[in-house]
């Protein structure tokens, strides 16, 4: 199982535009990835579902956990999505 913890860099957290960019990238990975809060209180949910991701209510600076059960391709997918989440996706 691939797993990565990452702090969300977007100034608005995973809301609206940042969530859409993240979900679009998750869909492009070709493997199923899940996201949940690091405290385990919210999620994990399908990272390719905009409603599920936004429903987590993740705020800026909050730590999340990305997981994939696909060992080989999952590691690359989780790493790519973690790198994306570290950026401020709401910056112009």
From TrEMBL:
PROSITE patterns: PTS_HPR_DOM, PTS_HPR_HIS. Residues 1-92 form the HPr domain. SUPFAM superfamilies: HPr-like (SSF55594). Keywords: Cytoplasm, Phosphotransferase system. It holds the Pfam family PTS-HPr. InterPro entries: HPr, HPr-like, HPr-like_sf, PTS_HPr_His_P_site. It is found in: Cytoplasm. PANTHER family: PHOSPHOCARRIER PROTEIN HPR (PTHR33705), PHOSPHOCARRIER PROTEIN NPR (PTHR33705:SF2). General (non sugar-specific) component of the phosphoenolpyruvate-dependent sugar phosphotransferase system (sugar PTS). This major carbohydrate active-transport system catalyzes the phosphorylation of incoming sugar substrates concomitantly with their translocation across the cell membrane. The phosphoryl group from phosphoenolpyruvate (PEP) is transferred to the phosphoryl carrier protein HPr by enzyme I. Phospho-HPr then transfers it to the PTS EIIA domain. NCBIfam families: PTS_HPr_family. This is Phosphocarrier protein HPr. The lineage of its organism: Bacteria, Bacillati, Actinomycetota, Actinomycetes, Pseudonocardiales.
């Amino acid at each position: 199982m691939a797993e990565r913890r990452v702090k969300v860099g977007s100034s608005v957290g995973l809301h609206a535009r940042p969530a859409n960019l993240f979900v679009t990238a998750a869909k492009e990975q070709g493997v199923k990835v899940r996201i949940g809060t690091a405290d385990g209180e919210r999620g994990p949910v399908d990272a390719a579902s905009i409603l599920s991701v936004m429903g987590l209510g993740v705020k800026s600076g909050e730590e999340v956990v990305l997981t994939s059960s696909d060992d080989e391709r999952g590691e690359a997918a989780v790493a790519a999505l973690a790198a994306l989440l570290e950026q401020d996706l709401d910056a112009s």
